[in-house]
C-alpha cells in the first residue's frame, strides 16, 4: 500500500546538508508494521514524477544509502549526503520509496519534497 508522505518546510531539509530520512513501512491495514527483512529498496528524488529514472537527481538503494534500520518493525533510513543536494536549487521536488525485489516491486511511499535554501554557502 503506497502512502503519501510529503517532506515539507517543517521537516527542515536544507540544500547541501547531511540528512537522514526515516520511513516506517506498514502492512495493508496501515497500522501493523511490515517486516522488511531482506527487502531491496530504492529511493529517488526527481524534478517531476514523470521524469525517467535515469534523470533522477538523487538515487539511493539498499546497496548504497538505504539501511534497513529495524527491519522487523518496518523501519528503514535513507542517508542523504551534503553533496547529493548541493547543486540543486530551493524548490519542491518529488520523492518515492519503492521495493525493487523482482516480482514484488511496489511503491511504498511517495510525495512532494521541499528543499530549502540555507544561509551558508560553502
Describe the structure.
By secondary structure, the protein is mostly beta strands. It has one domain: Immunoglobulin-like. It is built from one helix and eight strands. Strands 1-8-7-3-4 form a five-stranded mixed beta sheet, with no helix packed on it. Strands 2-6-5 form a three-stranded antiparallel beta sheet. Strand 5 (66-70) and strand 6 form a beta hairpin. The chain is globular, with a radius of gyration of 14 Å. The termini are far apart. The mean pLDDT is 95.
**CATH architect. name:** Sandwich
Q: What is the name of the CATH topology?
A: Immunoglobulin-like
Output the structural class.
mainly beta
Helix percent reads under 10%
The CA-CA distance between the termini, in Å, is 40 Å
How much of the polypeptide forms β-strand, as a percent range? 35-45%
The quaternary structure here is single chain
Q: What is the CA-based Rg, rounded?
A: 14 Å
Would you identify the regions where 5 or more consecutive residues have pLDDT less than 50?
Answer: none
Note the run of SSEs as H and E: EEEEEEHEE
Highest-level CATH class: Mainly Beta
Shape: globular
How many extended strands? 8
Total discrete domains: 1
Q: Kindly report the average pLDDT value.
A: 95
Provide a count of the helices: 1
Largest sheet: number of strands, sense, barrel closure: 5 strands, mixed
Strand order of the largest sheet: 1-8-7-3-4
Amino acid at each position: 500500500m503506497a502512502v503519501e508522505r510529503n517532506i515539507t518546510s517543517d521537516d527542515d531539509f536544507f540544500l547541501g546538508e547531511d540528512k537522514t530520512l526515516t520511513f516506517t513501512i506498514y502492512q495493508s491495514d496501515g497500522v501493523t508494521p511490515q517486516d522488511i527483512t531482506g527487502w531491496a529498496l530504492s529511493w529517488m528524488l526527481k524534478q517531476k514524477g514523470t521524469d525517467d529514472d535515469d534523470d533522477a537527481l538523487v538515487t539511493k538503494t539498499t546497496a548504497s544509502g538505504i539501511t534497513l534500520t529495524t527491519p522487523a518493525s518496518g523501519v528503514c533510513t535513507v542517508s542523504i549526503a551534503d553533496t547529493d543536494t548541493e547543486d540543486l536549487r530551493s524548490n519542491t521536488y518529488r520523492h518515492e520509496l519503492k521495493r525493487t525485489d523482482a516480482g514484488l516491486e511496489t511503491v511504498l511511499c511517495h510525495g512532494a519534497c521541499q528543499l530549502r535554501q540555507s544561509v551558508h554557502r560553502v
